[in-house]
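Predict the holo structure. Ligand: S-adenosylmethionine.
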Amino acid sequence: MPSLSPAPFVGAAGRFAPTALYDPVMALTMREGAWRSKLVAQVAEDAPEHVVEIGCGTGSVTRRLVAAVPDARVTASDIDPDILSRAARKSADLDIEWLLAPATGLPIADDTADAVVCSLVLHHLDPEPKAAALAEARRVLKPGGRLHVADWGMPRDPVEGLAFTGLRLLDGWGRTRQHATGALPALLRGAGFDGVVTHHRFRTAWGALELLSAEAPQ
Ligand SMILES: C[S@@+](CC[C@H](N)C(=O)[O-])C[C@H]1O[C@@H](n2cnc3c(N)ncnc32)[C@H](O)[C@@H]1O
């Protein structure tokens, strides 16, 4: 694994908190069992042979992917070398290919993945790299392959709005604006994906988490 990280980024726990807090805070505040299992079930529906995860963090989705699609090749990438090492240690018992790479520049050939998974990553990116990351997901997907996204949706009431304000302060106002306005489905369509579907919506301590899928054009 190369030791240099290619560009600045917002770490898993946001701009101010250490990465070591990420897993415990997620476990306490995010109803992880509920939505992570729905996300991997979405992926498993297509019985993919090669799954690429972008911004895998500590590998909480990655582990579940291996369990849900045991015959698939799973490639998990992140821009942060520290968190990638944590993920590899946490899942040392599993056959996962770890890749140090930005979401905007995956060292993966065109049209080779059956599924791309992007969980809680897009809201860490400013609008331009967010669009570039979606274009990159589309590039590596085979025609008809599906992108699966878990990320923040528009708050629907003042409680969700207040919760999401806390998250926006941690991760950055500009990076989260398109999520606050409910623009995620339009962003997926703008990146050239077809069949954009919002499958689930979960209220959490940080706002409303949505699970979407979108298909790379045939
Ligand atoms: C909130 S964490 C989500 C981690 C994991 N996917 C999950 O569901 O728990 C966001 C992750 O995105 C990664 N990240 C941030 N900017 C990135 C970029 N430009 N390219 C790839 N990964 C990035 C961070 O290092 C972090 O691991």
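The pocket of S-adenosylmethionine is lined by residues 9-12, 54-57, 60-61, 78-80, 83, 102-103, 119-121, 124-125, 129 (CB under 6 Å). The CA atoms of residues 152 and 209 lie 5 Å apart.
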